[in-house]
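FAQ: What does a ligand-bound record look like?

Like this one, built around 5-S-methyl-5-thio-alpha-D-ribofuranose:
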Amino acid sequence: MPFQVLTAAALPAYLATLPPMQERFTDFEALDVAEVGDGNVNFVFLVTQRGAPERTVCVKQAVPYLRCVGESWPLTRHRMDVEVRALREFGALCPQHVPAVYAADSEMSLVVMQRLCNHRILRLGLIDGLVYPRMSDHISTYLARTLFFTSDLYLAPDAKKAAVAGASNPELCRITEDLVFTHPYDDSPTNAYPPGLPPRAIERLQRNPPLRAAVGEMKYAFMTATEARLHGDLHTGSVMANAEETFVIDPEFSFYGPMGFDVGAFIANLFLAYVAQEHRQRDAGRDPAPYREWLLQSAVETWEGFERKFLALWREHEADGTGFIGRDLDGESAEVFRAAFMRHVFADTLGFAACKMMRRIVGLAKVADIAGITDVAARTLAEVRALRIAEHLILSRHAFGSIGAVVAAVERLGAT
Ligand code: SR1
Ligand code: MG
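The answer part, i.e. the structure of the complex:
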């Protein structure tokens, strides 16, 4: 079918044309459809057969523009091909944390996938102060498996190079290059300065040569490193969770890049939640300390879990002899190399986390954790603290010896 923007009304007839849907639905006249997308980029529909709640799917369609801006920001629909490939690849590596793809239609720029009925967008749960006991274990597993198995540490050299070429995503990478690594430090017209943010806080980003040089280094790494296939936008709005399960969704920004970009994105969003929750918990009549402590502990467990599981995969598959280390180094030198490699990913994680935090304060796209705080003084305090934390993380990224030292700094800067 040639491309057309689907409406809720048109979706049942369209789904009836897809062979895999014949097994999932028995009555296409009885489908309830709701458009529920609240992301920045695409449209999302939930489809359920009336009287048969188990017969349900999620449909996501890319339109030829950026949803949150409209037709004045054109964007090719190629991003849906990227997303489908990434969902399939990550799903094969980590099926317990990636929604299953039921059908995909490149012409229509659309994917039909598993509907996560009993899960909620993680950011919304965190805003409400919910604890997710398995979150950091699951996210660290997802990160370790997707980053290790798509890297040169596992893949044979020619397979890895073919994978890099096949995952090229220049258009969405350009959005990140602009919105995360360029505009916030440039007084760009795309920036959206929060109403209460003091001018000196903005000057500390935009007239600060060491900080801008550090952001330049992170941007260069983002543009040139092809370490692993990344999700590319792993904030807490790209995760759906409940107390037992965690799923990573929305990999339309996927490409081959530096591993620390994905790890840093997730940790950055925990730190943004941390600065927001001082006010949010008090506003709900609760002592903020326990929940904020859990957020920081989750950042520690995410990094430590990722490092432990990644290294375990590396050692386990070294014996296979296909990846870089398997062919090149003896046991002792391999361990020295591994330690240096993890220090590099850790410093990148902190640098990228910082850029992600700064862009969410002064850039175009905000996070609801902070932007949704209606008390302007409380919101501004959270924003100033986020910027202070980010500045320290990026400038000291090579000096931190452990994630414990990082969260101690976050705690200190998040209290002043
Ligand atoms: C203009 S799109 C804004 C942001 O939404 C996505 O989630 C990415 O983070 C992108 O930068
Ligand atoms: Mg998204």
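Follow-up question: can I read anything off the structure? Yes, for example: Residues 11-114 form a domain with the Phosphorylase Kinase; domain 1 fold (CATH 3.30.200.20).
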